[in-house]
Amino acid sequence: MRQISPFFNRWLSQIGPDRVVAILTELVDAGAVFVIDADGKIMFWSKGAENLFGRPAEEVVGRNCTEALGCEDGSDPCALAEHGSIQAQAVTLKRPNGGVVACYRTARAFFDASGQFAGAMEFLQPRSGSEAVAGRLDADESFHGIFSRDIAMQQAIKIIRNVAETEATVLIRGESGTGKELVAHALHLESARRDKPFLAINCAALTPSLLESELFGHVKGAFTGAVRSHAGLFQRASGGTLFLDEVAELPLELQAKLLRVLQEQSFIPVGGDSAISVDVRIIAATHRSLREEVKAGRFREDLMYRLRVVPVFLPPLRERRQDVTLLLWLCIDQHNQQGPRHVDSIAPDAMRRLLDYRWPGNVRELKNVVEYAFAVGRGNEITLEDLPPEFREMPAGGNRTTLSRQNIPHVDEAELIREALKVTGGNLEAAARHAGMSRATFWRKRKKYRIA
Fold it and tell me: Considering all CA atoms of the chain, what is the largest pairwise distance in Å, rounded to the nearest integer?
């Protein structure tokens, strides 16, 4: 056995072995790590295990792992007392929705001073990325083409499902590439207007005069070149939904006209003299804060309140780290079906760079990166050399940020947990991140210190 420095043992006692284990297992993004006791009951359940099986730590800790995981091939994932260790054993495990996960299982048993089996640590790795996606994807992780298991994203989807049953105006806020139009279309498909038109326009893409004509239409002779009347988007979308992307870029002179449509459900075309009544639901989106635009005098406050009846916030991909692997393999699977190259693995150093990357272009950029890798690379594995130059140039782990609290061994953990819960308003996922812990560790610490 490899010798352990006494200084390392002392460091472990200062930091806390449970925290070290939790942090180490969080580095294993592509698989699940869990620990069982001598009776086969789960004592530790990593964040990767939560993602892979769709089961939170609260649901499985304390349960027998055979019961919690349910091996379909008849093998007992906890039968290590006789073998001591297992290397890359193929197993098929169940998910709560009835789906399965095909994994390679690696495990190591621990024995006490008398030689009795004391427990084990296990690592489960999906057999391949595409198989992992097929086996892990729950119905609630796919929503009209939106794929996510991130808690904040799932909350946004929940809001969309609920608000779709109403006629409330929705404002979608998110960075470029987060899928705002996809979310708007999903809201339309969930609504009673699903059989009517869904039309979209980018308010930043046209000049004010062209934008006005495109939105509200014009009559023949309204301006030079208007040789015939033109029905605008509001008229063509009547009965359905109109999506106004980058609505913060809407010129002030058009904001008043938009406000009239929202208030009276009618408008006057360019050059016209009579109002046209329409029945249109408005969904707007922006990457800017409308409140800040109002303060700067660039946006009408009354229009902001009419558009921002139900705000929906889409988190950037850098805050949805558990979604990166899922989205990568979904994109890879799409390219595999198109041929001629078929990818079934990602090299560890390439995966680390992909997970550490900040993704300024969000999901749109991720799709482009996969397309780049398929275009320039060869073989069944995506390597670091297949990635764009910015991935090869960035230092390993260079974009990862850690909370300074993680490096302070003498911090009062109970006080840290209380502070995290207070700062995040009781949101467990956000509180765990604030405290520098996995959600499973945060949950155990709360129980330990009896913090409500």
Answer: 97
